[in-house]
């Protein structure tokens, strides 16, 4: 690999490390619940095919959704996978609508061989995101107008060290050892605008997360007599208590006519309180079928037991979630160097899920359609991956909010042979 390319990768890694935990990555009122808005399989390759992952494996792509897939890496090569994403969101209620947009570093992964039967990867990516600012206004006969404001920002990041082990010719197993870390700043404010007898109340929760998390995977892969490749996979993540700390601060105050806050009382309850956030058990499975460098199609399903979720010993109004994904990839002629468009990978997918949110006795559903392209770069096995996702979550019935979003992601997959000795004649 050229020195310039290696330096670019190191600079990119440094930027990810410095900015991943600090950037604003979401604007969703639904990230107020649980541990925030969960970041799923969102690298450009997987996302373009409806977030397929459990039954996929490829020597040029890092599929961290199933660690057993790491055994597909070449024994003499490194794979670098990274990307940026931009998201446009429109929030609609029965009263009004608003639009937001934001961009962020999406992911960075390195895949490499250790032995012929043991392959590994190191990655940095988001685990969940929190970002919202919601206000409600009510009028009460005894005290007049009361404004409730809810704010939140931050999220949890995930540093992965994964391993895949080839058990037999057709079976692999793998595990991801992840370190979860990050902060969530959760605030609420109650303002009694028409009363001089009630003090306004401002509450701030600063939650810090720092602990390890594991998930495991299995894959079977083989060929039929007609030379079709078949891959079937399964994943499992056990229920895990994540060590957390909660700094809680409550203040009562009055507002002057010019809007200046005058603090009346300050209360610190459970300052630096240590506890756990329970991430519940998850299972999933999927399969794909296709021909090497020609086409593939697959289907995934996932379920997670969010009814068991607890934060510092308290339950939330969450329900069990599920997701179904379908996707496909087609390459007209990967060896046709005279017609570039025939070497491009064309991808499409669909995702439908019941989220872990149940509001006003209604489970919030989400669906999305995806499309993407893999653009090979001349003279190498490096691919520029473009992916787009358009979808909707929630509803405007029962005075809820509907999110309509468009996500665009730009990623790259760099494949380099690092262990081949050059011969000179």
Can you tell me about this structure?
Strands 2-3-4-5-6-7-8-12-13-16-17-18-19-20 form a 14-stranded antiparallel β-barrel. It has 425 residues and is mainly beta. The chain has helices spanning 3-19, 44-48, and strands at 37-38, 77-92, 97-113, 118-140, 144-166, 171-192, 200-223, 229-237, 240-255, 261-268, 273-279, 282-291, 295-304, 310-311, 314-315, 321-330, 345-359, 362-376, 383-394, 402-417. It is built from 2 helices and 20 strands. Strand 5 and strand 6 (171-192) form a beta hairpin. Residues 3-14 and 17-22 have low confidence and may be disordered. Helix content is 5%, strand content 61%.
Structural class designation: mainly beta
- Count of individual helical segments: 2
Count of β-strands: 20
The termini sit apart by: 22 Å
- Strand line-up in the sheet with most strands: 2-3-4-5-6-7-8-12-13-16-17-18-19-20
Give the CA-based shape: elongated
Order of helices and strands: HEHEEEEEEEEEEEEEEEEEEE
- Poorly predicted residue ranges: 3-14, 17-22
The residue fraction in helices comes out at under 10%
Key words describing this protein structure:
mainly beta, 425 residues, elongated, single chain
Topology:
Layout: H1 3-19, E1 37-38, H2 44-48, E2 77-92, E3 97-113, E4 118-140, E5 144-166, E6 171-192, E7 200-223, E8 229-237, E9 240-255, E10 261-268, E11 273-279, E12 282-291, E13 295-304, E14 310-311, E15 314-315, E16 321-330, E17 345-359, E18 362-376, E19 383-394, E20 402-417
Antiparallel strand pairs: 1-4, 2-3, 2-20, 3-4, 4-5, 5-6, 6-7, 7-8, 7-9, 8-12, 9-10, 9-11, 11-14, 12-13, 13-16, 14-15, 16-17, 17-18, 18-19, 19-20
